Amino acid sequence: xxATKLAPPGADVQLTASPRRSVxxxxxxxxxxGIVLALVVLVAVTATQNSRFLSGQSIRDILLGTxxxxxxxxxxxxxxxxxxxxxxxGSVLGLSAFAVGSLMRDNPxxxxxxxxxxxxxxxxxxxxxNGATVRFGQVPALVVTLxxxxxxxxxxxxxxGGQQINADKLPASFLDFGTSSLLGVxxxxxxxxxxxxxxxxVLRNYxxxxxxYAMGSSPQAAKLAGIKVGRNTSAAFLVSGALAGxxxxxxxxxxxxxxAAAGTGLELNVVAAVVVGGVAVFGGSGTVWGAGLGALLLxxxxxxxxxxxxxxxxxxxxxxxxxxxxIGADRLVAVRVAKALKKRDSHV
Amino acid sequence: MSRRVLTGLLTAGLAVALTACGGTTKNDSSxxxxxxxxxTANPGAAAKxxxxxxxxxxxxxNPYSDIEVSGGKAALDELKGVYKLVGxxxxxxxxxxxxxxxxxxxxxxxxxxxxxxxxxxxxxxxxARSAGIKIVAFDSDAAKxxxxxxxxxxxxxxxxxxxxxxxxxxxxxxxxxxxxxxxPNATNQNAWIDVAKQTLAKPEYANLxxxxxxxxxxxxQKSFQEAQGLLQSFPNLKVIVAPTTVGIAAAARYVSSSxxxxxxxxxxLGTPNQMRAFVKDGTVKQFALWNPADIGYxxxxxxxxxSSGQITGAQGQKFKAGKLGEYTIGASGEIVLGPPTxxxxxxxxxxxx
Amino acid sequence: xxxxxRRFASWDTAVILVTVVVLVIASFGVENxxxxxxxxxxxxxxxxxxxVALPMTFVIVTGEIDLSVASTLGLTSAVxxxxxxxxxxxxxxxxxxxxxxxxxxxxxxxFVTVLKLPSLAVTIGTLALYRGLAFVVLGDGAVADFPRExxxxxxxxxxxxxxxxxxxxLIVLALVFGVVLHATPVGxxxxxxxxxxxxxxxxxxxxxxxxFWLYVVSGAVAGxxxxxxxxxxxxxxxDNGFGVELAVVAAVLLGGVSxxxxxxxxxxxxxxxxxxxTLQNALRLQDVSNEALNIVTGVLLIVSxxxxxxxxxxxxxxxxxxxxxxx
Lengths: 348, 353, 327
Description:
The structure holds 3 protein chains of 3 kinds. Chain B has helices spanning 2-20, 63-79, 93-105, 122-130, 156-171, 187-200, 220-233, 245-256, 272-280, 292-307; strands spanning 52-56, 82-85, 110-113, 134-138, 149-152, 175-181, 208-215, 237-242, 265-268, 286-289, 318-320, 326-328, 334-336, 341-344. Chain B is α/β, with parallel strands linked by helices. Chain B folds into 2 domains: 52-153 and 292-337, Rossmann fold (3-Layer(aba) Sandwich); 156-289, Response regulator (Rossmann fold), CATH 3.40.50. In chain B, the strands form 4 sheets. A 6-stranded parallel beta sheet of chain B has the order 2-1-3-4-5-13, sandwiched between helices. In chain B, strands 7-6-8-9 form a 4-stranded parallel beta sheet, sandwiched between helices. In chain B, strands 10-14 form a two-stranded antiparallel sheet. In chain B, α8 links the parallel β8 and β9 (265-268). Chain B starts with a helix and ends in a 9-residue tail after the last strand. In chain B, 55% of the residues are buried. Chain C has a single domain (35-318), classed as ABC transporter involved in vitamin B12 uptake, BtuC (Orthogonal Bundle), CATH 1.10.3470. Chain C has helices at 2-29, 36-61, 69-85, 90-114, 119-138, 148-155, 167-183, 185-195, 197-202, 207-233, 244-254, 266-285, 290-318, and strands at residues 142-143, 236-237. The model of chain C has no long low-confidence stretch (mean pLDDT 87).
C-alpha cells in the first residue's frame, strides 16, 4: 500500500557508523524513559488512593498479567521492525492454549517442558504459514494475518466444538507452574524476562538482528545489499508465531480453564504495547525492551482502572488512544530527526 | 468546497430543527409484543412424536449449560423427538439472535432458549412464534410477551434469599460482601441479585454490607480478573458471592492460590465437580445449586406438550414431565422446578455433575 | 489501460460467474436455502456489509484502508441507543448518528492526510478507540424498545414478496457510487491516486483532499449501517457489528480490487459481497457455527489476494517477453 512505502528518511540511518547513532541513542532514551515516567506517575497516583496496590500480592498479579502480554509483544516487535505486522497472535495463542490444555488433560503424567515445547512448535507452524504466504505469495502481511486471525480462530472453534478445558481436569503440576515461584519470582515472569533478554541480545548484537532492522528501514536497499529478505521475513513470522504459542502455554497454566475463545482481541493490546513501546510501524526502529515496557504499562493501566474504580470500559478506548498518540509521536520524532539530519548534511 | 460544506451544514441543521418540533420518542413507542396464543389447550391430546426442538443456551462452552441440555436430550430421546444444540461461544445476545434466525429457517418446532438479554432476543423470538414455532425459555427468561413458558430452576425469591443466608453464615454475621455476577443483562442473575438486595435491607442483615456487584461475563478469565480486582479494592471484604458457576469457579481458583485463602469466603451457585477441590481444601465452605439436567428435561417435556397442543402456557394448565411428575403452570407462564440444594464437605461426594 | 481493464474485467466476470454457480448449487443442495424467507434473511444479512463495502472500495483503490468501520458502526449504534433511552426523538437521532459517523471518519482522514500517518496503524487505533467509546457510552447492556414503525420497515419487504425494503436505498447508493467511480473525474482521480500517489499529485489531483473526504464518506456510511443494524435487530449494543470489517475487506478484495490500489470495479465488489453472504448463509443452514464460518472468510480473504499474484506469476513465466516497451 502506498502509505507504507514511504519511510521517513531518518530511519535509514540506523545501520551506519556510530557518530550518527548518538542522535538515535538520545531519541530512544527519551522514548523509553517517557514510558518509565508514565508508569511511575500512574503507580504513584493509584497507590495513594489504595495502598494495597503496592502489596506483594498485587505486584505479583500485575507481573503475572504482564508476562503473557510481554512474550507476545516481543514476537510482534520482531515482525514490526521488519515493516510487517502480525494480527494473528491472539488466535495462535488461543489455538496453542487449547491444544496444550488438551494434551495435559489427556496425559497428566507429561512433564511441563513437553507442554512448552508443544506450544512453541504449534506456534512456529502457524508463524511459518504466515511467513510463507507473505514471502512466496507476495501478499501484504496485513491481509495474510487478518485472514489467519480468523482462520486459526475458526480452527480452534471447530476443534473445540463448544467444549472447554476445565482447571479441575488439568494436572496439578501444570497449574502450579502457572502460579508458583522460584526464589519469590513467579515462573511465568522468569520465562518472560528470559525471552526479553534473548531477543534483545540477538536483535542488538547479532547479524540476524541488524538485518531485520535494515529490512524495515528500506527493503529495496536491504535486498541490494545482499540481505536474504525473503528468508528473514519468514524467520521473523516464525519467531512471532512461536512466541505466541509459548504465550498460549503460559495462558493455559495461569488460568487453567481454556476454551476456543482464549486470547480473542489480544492482538489489539499487543500492537498497542509494541507501538507505545517505541517500535515504529514504519519499521526499522525500536527495541524489544520498549515493547516489554509497553506491555507493563498497559497491564498497570488495566489494574489501576479496577482499583480506582473507574469504569473498566474505558480500557479499550484508552488502548486505542495510546496507539494513536504513539504513532503520532513517532511521526513527530521522525520528522524532527529528518530535519536535523538534513541540516547536518547541508554543512558537508 | 467551502460553499458545499456550508450548504451541507445548513441542510443538516434545518433537518434537525424541523424534526425537533415533534417526533417519536420512546415514551410514545408501543411495545414489541407479538400476538399471544389464543388457541385453547387440549390436555387430552397425545404427545407428538418427531418434535424438532433446538436448545439455545446462553453459551456453549459452559459446563452448567452442558448439563442442562444433556437433560433435554435425554427427555427428547424418551419422547422420540429430534434434538439439536446451537449456541454462541460468548454469552452475547446478538449471537443468539442470529442463531434464532437460522433456526426459523430450518423450520424447528420448538426453541428452548436461555436468554442473554431478555429484550434483545424478543423481536426474533416473536418472528419465530409467528412462524408457528413454540418458545420455551429456561434458566434465564426472555421478556414475558416473547415466549410461551419459562422453566425456572427454583423460585427467584428462594434463590436470592439463600444467597444472602449463605453469605451471612460465612461472614460470621457482619462485614462487607461483594457479588460477582455473570453478564450485566442476564435475566436470572439480575432477578436473584434484586431479591438479595431487598433481603439485605431487612433488619436481621443490618450488619452485612454489599459493597459492589462486579460482572465476569461468564468468561472464566474475566471473572478471575474481577475477583482479583474486588480483593484489591476492598481490603475488608469477607465474602464473595458468585451466583454463576463460571464466576464461583474462577473466584475460588483465584482465592485458593492467593494470600486471601482462608480469610475471604467464596460462595454462590456452583457445580459439585468444579467445586470439589475447593471444598476439600477449605476455600469454599458451602454453596448451592439444583440439578441442571432436570431443567433441560422439564423444558423438553414442556416444549413437546406445547407443540402437541396439550398446553398453551396459560396459568393453571397441567402437563406430565416424565420421571419428574406432573407440573402446573404458574403466573405469567412460569414453571418452577423445585427448591435448591446446599452442598458442603459432608455431601459433596455424593454428586457427579 | 484497456489491456488492464480487460484483465480485470475477466476477474470480475469470474467472480460473478462463481457467485451465480454457488447460488444455484445452494438452492438445490442446501435444505431450506431456496425459500423466499431465506432469501429475505440473506439480503438483510448482507445489507450492512454491502453498504460499508461501497466506500471501502474507493478507500482501498486509493491505496489506503479503513479497519475502523465496524467500530464506527458499533459506536453509532451505542449512541443511538443511549440517546433513545434518554428520550430524544427517533427522527433527530437517525441523522445525528449519520453525522457522528462522518465526524469519526473525518478524524481518520485527519490522521491519514494531514498528519500523514499510515492508514493501517491509524485505523487499528481508531478501531480500538471507537469500540471502547461505544462501551463507555452504553456499557454492556442493550436498548431494545425502538419504535415498531421503523423496525418493521427495516425488517419488512416490498408488498408480500421476498425483497426487503432496505434493498431500495442500497441499490440507489450502489448506483451512485458506481457511477462516480467509473464515469466521473472524481473516480478517475481516485484510481490515479491509487496507481501512483506522486504522479497523481503532479497531474493536479489533490490526493490529500480526495482521501480525506473518502474517509468522511466511509464513516458516514458506517454510521448509516449502524442505524440500520440497530433497527433490524431492534437492539442497540456496543458490540454490534463486531468483526464486520473482516467481511467487508474480504468481499472487496474478493471482488477484484487490488490491495495495492489503483484497480478494481464496483460490480465485482457487489458480486464479492453476494458470494460471501451466500456461502455464510448456506453453511449456517448446515449448522456450521458462526466462528467456524470465519475460517471460510479468512481463507477467502487470503486466496483473493494470493490468486491474482499466482496467476500473473504463471502468465509471466509463460510469456517471458511480455514486457512491452511503451510502459
